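User: Can you help me understand a structure? I only have the sequence.
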Amino acid sequence: MKKTITILLFALLYSVMNSYAQTVLYTHDQDGNMIYRNVLTLRSANASDEEIIPISDEIGEQKVTIYPNPTKGHFQVELTLLDEKLKNYFIIYSLSGTIIKQNKISNVMTEINISSYPSGTYLLDIFLGDKVSRWKVIKL
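Assistant: Let's start by predicting it. Here is the structure, written out as C-alpha cells:
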C-alpha cells in the first residue's frame, strides 16, 4: 500500500513539474550590475488555457504583467500604473531584429495582436519613460 501511494505521489509531482518550465534571464551592464530581469514561463503543449500563469516583472516602481505567453496571437500587457507624462510605448521585433509592430501605451491594459505573423519567438521591448523591459513572446 505504501509503495502504491509513493508511486502515485511521484507521478503527480512529475506531471506538475513537467507541465511548466521557467527560465530567468539576466542582462548586466559593463560593471556587472543587473539591468534587466526577464522571467519566461513556458507551459507544455497539453496544458489548458485555464492553467495560464501570467508572467510579471517590475520596471522601476511599476509591475508589468504579460499573458498568455505562449500565445496564439493575442496577448495582454497590464501595468499597475501609467504615468501619461512619460513616453510609454512597445516595440516587437522578430529574432532577425526587424521591427514588426510598435505602438504607444496609453492604458494600463494594452492588447497586442501578432496573429498575422508566423509562429515563433519574438522580442517585446516595453518602454516606460527612460526605463525598459525586454520580454520573449512565443507565438504558437
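Now, to help you interpret it: The chain has a mean pLDDT of 79. Residues 2-139 form a domain with the Immunoglobulin-like fold (CATH 2.60.40.3080). Let me know which part you'd like to focus on.
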